[in-house]
Design brief:
mainly alpha, rod-shaped
């Protein structure tokens, strides 16, 4: 089919370039309009053939690797454990600061 369109396009270009219809503007404009529409048809046919080959292929366009599942197990460590560890560390640091401060001021 593309060979037929190519031959028709070449024939129309030869007619336009030969100057046979140069005095008749209506025929010239009709031939140019027809040539433009043939070029559009060629592009549409190429797109159609590409879409048809994609649709008829056995390979799917997208893959689903695994289905998504919500996480049922909570993350470790729990929030309360982190809060208790932070409070204990804060208590130890403040106690250490208090001991150093008392020892330092006794020496002065």
């Amino acid at each position: 089919m593309n060979e037929d369109l190519g031959a028709v396009k070449m024939h129309i270009n030869n007619l336009l370039n030969s100057g046979i219809y140069s005095s008749d503007m209506l025929v010239t404009s009709l031939l140019q309009d027809y040539l433009i529409k043939l070029q559009r048809l060629d592009v549409i046919q190429q797109n159609y053939n590409q879409a048809l080959s994609i649709m008829s292929s056995d390979i799917p366009a997208c893959y689903q690797i695994t289905s998504a599942e919500p996480v049922y197990k909570k993350a470790f460590p729990p929030r309360t454990l982190i809060a208790l560890a932070g409070a204990f560390l804060g208590f130890l640091l403040m106690w250490f600061y208090y001991l150093v401060k008392e020892k330092y001021f006794r020496l002065i």
